Amino acid sequence: MLKAFVFGLIGLGLSVNPSYASNLKIGSWGGNVRSGPSTDYTRIGSLREGDPVVLLEKIKSSGSKLNWFKIAYGKGKVGYQWGGILCGFDKEVNGTFGVCEKDNRSSPRRYRCSDQNQLRSLGAKRDTKITFFVGQTAKDFNVYWIDYNGNEQFYQRLSSGMSWTVDTYPSHPWVVYKLSKSGGETCHSVVRGTKRPSQWLLR
Question: Which pLDDT tens digit goes with each residue over 109-129?
Answer without folding.
Answer: 999 999 999 999 998 888 999
